[in-house]
Amino acid sequence: MSDSTAKILDGKALSKHLIGELKERVLACVERGVTPCLAVVLVGEDPASKVYVRSKERKAAKAGIATKDHRMSADTSTETLLGVIAELNADPAVHGILVQLPLPEGIDEQRVLAAVDPAKDVDGFHPDNLGLLMLGRPRFVACTPQGCMRLLAESGVSPEGKRALVIGRSTIVGKPVAQLLVQANATVTVAHSRTRDLEAEVRQADIVVAAVGRPEMVPGAWIKPGAVVIDVGINRLEPEQPGAKGRLVGDVHYASAAEQAAAITPVPGGVGPMTIACLLANVVEAAERV
Ligand SMILES: Nc1nc2c(c(=O)[nH]1)N[C@@H](CN(C=O)c1ccc(C(=O)N[C@@H](CCC(=O)O)C(=O)O)cc1)CN2
């Protein structure tokens, strides 16, 4: 039994609520002849990507957002994929384009992401959109970082003046979330694989955003009492690991961290569902701009 007093930041419930709220905006678009539409491009057979794409399509349907499916084989060339993106860019019925990551080896991911029309880049991965975020004039903000900030707001703790630690420096999560925290007036440190003393960094942090993809690498004992923990990691334990049975865990050891933290996101049911809600909000925004 845990004697946790932490507030659980329920991303599943919040995402359901946000998707529900989108319905009215979708209806307003439809009334003026624009049905928000997301093109979903999935290349290859990655099982997790298939699950995420299915979930995005199901939730889009719940909000009244249309989807256009593009499934392509793992041996698709960069050129072929660029051709599909060019068609979607030119299609006025498509408002948002999502290229599910990771792409199979051999495809030039940077070229592909840069080929998406920035006005349809609902994932916020295009260099223009990343640049606008850096300038503090965001157009589309990447969905997981947005979801993190929304969950942080739910904690009731303002980032202003707080020490925030982002663990991980990926372009799709670590860097943009660090930028959003800076813009929210937090004092931000970004830790990564070469950080000398991660424990010391975590111990000082009022806000911890963990996005490294290493199961339970942050023990609860490192968490500063009263901190807010946003766990982006979604790691499936191998069935042979003790007590695992294919269980999903975050980058933070949840049970022990919940004993220290003021608020914490669970895995599953935390940041993951928020990624999808924020994606759909971006699609509606793109359609509203038409
Ligand atoms: N084009 C993109 N590719 C990827 C993104 C992205 O934002 N855009 N993010 C991740 C994967 N992802 C969305 O695509 C994603 C990951 C996890 C979840 C989620 O709801 N997870 C559940 C658990 C689901 C499970 O059982 O595996 C949870 O955390 O509760 C949603 C979306 C990489 N690729």
Beta-strand percent range: 15-25%
In the CATH hierarchy, the third-tier topology of the largest domain is known as Rossmann fold
Question: How do the SSEs run, as a string of H and E?
Answer: EHEHEHEHHHEHEHEEEEHEH
What is the overall number of helices? 10
Oligomeric status: single chain
At CATH's second level, what is the architecture of the largest domain?
A: 3-Layer(aba) Sandwich
Rounded to an integer in angstroms, the radius of gyration calculated over CA atoms is 19 Å
- Chain-averaged pLDDT: 96
Q: How many domain regions?
A: 2
Termini distance?
Answer: 53 Å
Give the fraction of residues assigned to helices. 40-55%
Q: Give the overall form.
A: globular
Q: What's the total count of β strands?
A: 11
Question: What structural class should be given to the helix and strand makeup?
Answer: alpha/beta
Residue stretches low in confidence (pLDDT < 50, at least 5 long) are none
Major sheet: arrangement of strands: 1-11-8-7-5-6
CATH superfamily of the largest domain: NAD(P)-binding Rossmann-like Domain
Largest sheet: 6 strands, parallel
Bound molecules: ligand LMY7XDAE
| Highest CATH level, the class of the largest domain | Alpha Beta
Pfam families: THF_DHG_CYH, THF_DHG_CYH_C
Protein name: Bifunctional protein FolD
GO molecular function: methenyltetrahydrofolate cyclohydrolase activity; methylenetetrahydrofolate dehydrogenase (NADP+) activity
Keywords: Amino-acid biosynthesis, Histidine biosynthesis, Hydrolase, Methionine biosynthesis, Multifunctional enzyme, NADP, One-carbon metabolism, Oxidoreductase, Purine biosynthesis
